[in-house]
Amino acid sequence: MAEAHQAVAFQFTVTPDGIDLRLSHEALKQIYLSGLHSWKKKFIRFKNGIITGVYPASPSSWLIVVVGVMSTMYAKIDPSLGIIAKINRTLDTTGCMSSQTKNVVSGVLFGTGLWVALIITMRYSLKVLLSYHGWMFAQHGKISRATRIWMGLVKIFSGRKPMLYSFQTSLPRLPVPAVKDTVDRYLESVKPLMKESDFKRMTVLAQDFAVSLGPKLQWYLKLKSWWATNYVPSVYIRRRVASPPDVLSADTCLPFQDLLYVMPTQIQAARAGNSIHAILLYRRRLDREEIKPILLLGSTVPLCSAQWERMFNTSRIPGEETDTIQHMRDSKHIVVFHKGRYFKVWLYYDGRLLKPREIEQQMQRILDDPSEPQPGEAKLAALTAGERVPWAKCRQAYFGHGKNKQSLDAVEKAAFFVTLDETEQGYRKEDPEASMDSYAKSLLHGRCFDRWFDKSLTFIVFKNGKIGEHSWADAPIVAHLWEYVLATDCFQLGYAEDGHCKGDPNPNIPYPTRLQWDIPEECQQVIETSLNSATILASDVDFHSFPFHTFGKGLIKKCRTSPDAFVQLALQLAHYKDMGKFCLTYEASMTRLFREGRTETVRSCSTESCNFVLAMHESGEGAFEQRLRLFKVASEKHQHLYRLAMTGSGIDRHLFCLYVVSKYLAVDSPFLKEVLSEPWRLSTSQTPQQQVELFDLERNPEYVCSGGGFGPVADDGYGVSYILVGENLISFHISSKFSSPETDSHRFGKHLTQAMTDIIRLFGFTAAAEENELF
């Protein structure tokens, strides 16, 4: 019971002789260290706030400007054109300063004002420079003289050593495209997918919208863009959380897998110890803003970093109409789920982070705990996987007071959620296909009650030491964290020869605390209902995950084409092989060149891609040259569409926002209603690899991560995620639904493999010859 006595700093009893006071020196020490840790964090945040607030200048530049102003004053030169004299006369009215003091104060005030004016000028100049996106449309590998001059100016105004959020106020706002431009691009995107009669009808609807209702809705959207930092995020997030949190949706989750071939240790608690410690190191770097902002074009153009703010200490709170996001400035604990029990684990001891071996010790204590789940506890998290309204009502009725509120607060205010899974997962050589499919499905939804789907990050450790994560943040943000965690776990922390974390256990650390619940039968019935609906949905997912080894982006780049465009055209060809028709295709792009930018849609199925796919099914004289020519045309078109989406000229976010405005105004639009009801039967996304230097794949080729996938958006469609790992591997994740007689993930995977091979054969007499004609 030592840990129980450490929970209070003192105890006292009243006796006939007076008050008997007993102090716990260990508890007092922990309170002191905890307070010291909190004040350190506050100071670091305050310091970083000042540095970011004055960027692209620096706090030390204030002294330089003030000293410069004072020097000119003592040299009898007035740099202020009379402003300092006016300040001096104003101070004269106070009558409490000497002449010399007034001169110094006047100089300091003018110098400070000049410094602030310079900061504003530099910041605005940088924003204007970053509003230029012509460099993105230049020919690949060629940079014009004008672009080089522009890059030089950007670097001059960008200051030195930027922190994670330094560029936020200098990023331009996402522009609102013209209604006519968006409508024209929309019609161009659906033309190859519609019959001529349907396309004519849609053209009439679109053109009528562009000249009648569209301008009215656009005016409100423009108005919002003037006072909001970004006209999309608020409505986009509202849309995402107002509906049931489909645990399979591309919007609500993107699980990441472990290293494909490497197993650092097979001890579950040890892997948890190292990995959790690595996550906490990343969170500390994030709190201190030590993570460098992502820069494009030779470390010149910054991307928005806003999404990092809610990576940790964040939970989605259910509401009857719409959900809300609860974010804590700090959290000193995690919650761990194992065999239907919830444990609260403190992350600090003696004013410092727990070491990997100490975290392993805590995880092992949980694994060894023989206690049974309380009534309703084991499947409680199924509430977060079901319909939102029952969860919101249940939360309000049964979790608003007492021990249930305390335990739910512990979960929702935790830094992140951890599941010690009872199954063994991961790639197995003897059965690669089944093992990878099972691994992917486990990370996607588990058993629907062993993941807290409302947490921004759920970390999963399997029985055999494999790990994974489940998050509802955008892929590039989570991928950045995951790359750091895997690299830190393997290359920095490492393991002892016996497979345990390095270091020694610490028996003085208090045991994890079991969370207590009192869940009534009525709530247990809601839990069972939510679990049944989530299980039906999860069981319907047909998931196929496989590594494509035949070639990678290294060979694709020798074909002088974009690897992403290559894969997207292979997906179009595979879908046509699979279904015998074309479909509306979604590829996720990003708009993080703008402040608070998130994602945009690239409509990958274009007239040019359709022409290429049809040519691949034709034969005859000159067919080979025709296919190669059409491939290059389709590839260029795809890259152009991607660039338009990245630079704020996409189609779908604009149309969706116009639709939201029409709903607020209670105005019906047949055009928008039809556009928003069109199903995405092929939803795709590339997971970027951002920190290649962490793994050095040339030295460590086996240290590859296969990324993660998501569920299909349409009931009769496919969801495809892929990651280009190094130069020689592409990992694919394909999902569909068993309930659809038209789709089959494994069949699509075979068609995709064949499509990749068919396309690279087009270059077999050129670039592939350097590879000794792989086929």
UniProtKB/TrEMBL annotation:
It comes from the Eukaryota. The keyword Acyltransferase applies. Pathway: Lipid metabolism; fatty acid beta-oxidation. The keyword Flavoprotein does not apply. Residues 1-47 form the Carnitine O-palmitoyltransferase N-terminal domain. Keywords: Acyltransferase, Fatty acid metabolism, Lipid metabolism, Membrane, Mitochondrion, Mitochondrion outer membrane, Transferase, Transmembrane, Transmembrane helix, Transport. Its EC number is 2.3.1.21. Signal peptide: none annotated. It holds the Pfam family Carn_acyltransf. Residues 174-754 form the Choline/carnitine acyltransferase domain. GO terms for cellular component: mitochondrial outer membrane. PROSITE patterns: ACYLTRANSF_C_1 (PS00439). The active site is at H470 (proton acceptor). It is a multi-pass membrane protein. InterPro entries: Carn_acyl_trans, CAT-like_dom_sf, Cho/carn_acyl_trans, Cho/carn_acyl_trans_2, CPT_N. One of its GO terms (molecular function) is protein-macromolecule adaptor activity. It catalyses: (R)-carnitine + hexadecanoyl-CoA = O-hexadecanoyl-(R)-carnitine + CoA. It is an enzyme of class 2 (transferase). Belongs to the carnitine/choline acetyltransferase family. This is carnitine O-palmitoyltransferase. The lineage of its organism: Eukaryota, Metazoa, Chordata, Craniata, Vertebrata.
